[in-house]
Amino acid sequence: MGSGAVLFNIQPDKALIADTNKYVVEVYRSIQSGIISPNSLRTYLEVEGKKLETCGADYYYEVRERFNLAGNPFDFIFLNRASFNGVIRFNAKGKFNVPFCKKSDRFRPAYITKICNQVNWVAEVLQGKDWHFLVQDWRDTLASARADDFVYLDPPYIGRHTDYFGRWDSTDADELAAAVKELPCGFAYSMWKKNKYRENEHLIQHFSNYPQTIYHHYYHVGSTEDLRNPMEEVLVISPGCLA
């Protein structure tokens, strides 16, 4: 699923959405069920934001420890918005380990409103949609694909930082690429293509003969300006789907 940005912009009437990151899935499930709403989230962020402003980094790490014990979706949103550059990353033990963004006054009223407006937009998109959010392995997800489906895949970018949640190595990437090409339906496969330093050998190996739509993207998550570089990304498209 990635972040879900593509899903919420395409907005199909019916969709099966799956990821192994149970925390991202649970946020969307909670919005879908109404557990997380603009009002409930505002109340939560106002209370937690005041604690963060008073106690600073110590409170951020207290929430991070609390989240790693219980997995509360409200805490996950708090951490994502108060962590360094909004990064989502988990260690080998499955624990969220992104450091604090060093802004104790992070949750000012205008910023809370912005976050709640985003949740409201997601909630409105979800209304009337036949969408099912699942926590499961990609193999199980692709096994349910039928000829009249369309599959969008946003796997970890192999050859870059792919340990944001769980293990993902070249063997996993190769297996997924092979499975994608055997799908009975159309697909779009998101992957990085190249930057000024190198090209993605995985893409060349598996999809050099497939149609590719190129997009230019700039990454803002580097710790210093010289580590924030432009990148070419692609959607690998199954033959016939561009017609």
Give a verbal description of the structure.
The protein is an alpha/beta fold. It folds into two domains: 26-126, Adenine-specific Methyltransferase, Domain 2 (Adenine-specific Methyltransferase, domain 2); 137-237, Vaccinia Virus protein VP39 (Rossmann fold, 3-Layer(aba) Sandwich). It is 42% helix and 16% strand. It has a four-stranded mixed beta sheet, with no helix packed on it. Helix 8 links the parallel strand 3 and strand 4 (186-194). The two termini are 25 Å apart.
Describe the structure in brief:
The protein is of the alpha/beta class and 243 residues long. Helix content is 42%, strand content 16%. The protein has two domains: 101 residues, Adenine-specific Methyltransferase, Domain 2 (Adenine-specific Methyltransferase, domain 2); 101 residues, Rossmann fold (3-Layer(aba) Sandwich).
